[in-house]
């Protein structure tokens, strides 16, 4: 079903077309993430689930990207139907960064979501430019962000620089404020963690180190910090509350929101004529629950279940067929809420409740899991039970 329109030779070509400077910078950026993971690994290791929720998935991103970033390259665009192309993340990177979707209209294109890794975003921009030429020089008209998490919004800044014809950034009505109050402060926190890591590494360097590349890594990390500091993330100027039909010549694009779910401002992109759903992070194989609202999330998924679709491009992971994954996450949310209610009835403290969950059941239901999935499972799935407990307990309003 999945056919690549931009084959490897074209992908290689777009990579080779980058100037040496860009290529070197890209390598340096990836190396810098590796550097931060190396220096800050100890800080991340000690974090509890609560802190992970507080910081989002940043430690997960740092540690896992350190393992895979150098070996893996960003995905080439794959065509999933006549008018939709997807840059799927490589399997080993699927929890690090999001899939990006391109929808072709009569005269223009729409991009859905924006990566966290700026180097990946730059490579994707080259691929999108090549695709645009191939389709008859169609400009990017809209960028839709499914939610505020940085792995869906950060590269808005790169898109804005690269595609001056963009008519508008589009998202849920809560998204502009969420980018201002969550995405940007998290980026600022990330910058601070980089600075702390750089200071530590400089001390190691001064004390004498076996790492021959440390001086270069420090230099690279400083450059990345400088880039982060200048990053200006555009916010949506076209927004909606419950639903909106995008003003677009091409396939019908409906934007939907049924309440708070994965975040308090999710956008579901529905292409009814194509029976295709772009689901953001609402029912990935292993969704992140740390900013979620379990009962409204459940309501949202049950509303989505009523829509007529047969394929789903999730925010993370491979193309989904049918509603199997949707139903698996519906059951997970139902279980988390039911179990949290009985635990609170029995006055079981949160910590004991979390310890009592039989996670193996969910590992089997949500699997099969590769090594990356195994690690993600432990980070993401207990969070559903924590959030459900906190919601039933009235801690989450
Ligand atoms: Zn997310």
Structural topology:
Layout: H1 8-17, H2 20-45, H3 49-55, H4 58-68, E1 77-81, E2 84-87, E3 100-104, E4 109-112, H5 118-134, E5 140-144, H6 150-153, H7 156-162, E6 168-172, H8 175-206, H9 214-230, E7 238-240, E8 243-245, E9 254-256, E10 268-271, E11 276-278, H10 294-305, E12 311-313, E13 320-321, H11 324-345, H12 350-356, H13 359-366, H14 371-392
Helix pairs in contact: 1-5, 2-4, 2-9, 8-9, 10-11, 11-14
Bound molecules: zinc ion.
Zinc ion binds at residues 147, 149, 262, 281, 288.
Query: Averaging pLDDT over every residue, what do you get?
Result: 83
Domain module tally: 1
The hetero compounds bound to this protein are: zinc ion
Element string (H = helix, E = strand):
HHHHEEEEHEHHEHHEEEEEHEEHHHH
Largest sheet: 7 strands, mixed
Give the proportion of residues in helices. Answer: 40-55%
- Strand tally, please? 13
Q: Might you state the CATH topology name?
A: Metallo-beta-lactamase, Chain A
Low-confidence stretches: 1-34, 40-74
What assembly state would you assign to the polypeptide chains in this entry?
single chain
Q: What portion of residues belong to β-strands? A: 5-15%
What is the CATH superfamily?
A: Ribonuclease Z/Hydroxyacylglutathione hydrolase-like
How many H/I helices?
Answer: 14
Q: Spatial order of the strands in the main sheet?
A: 1-2-3-4-5-6-7
Text of the CATH class: Alpha Beta
CATH architecture: 4-Layer Sandwich
The rounded Rg comes to 21 Å
Q: Categorize the overall geometry.
A: globular
Distance between the termini: 43 Å
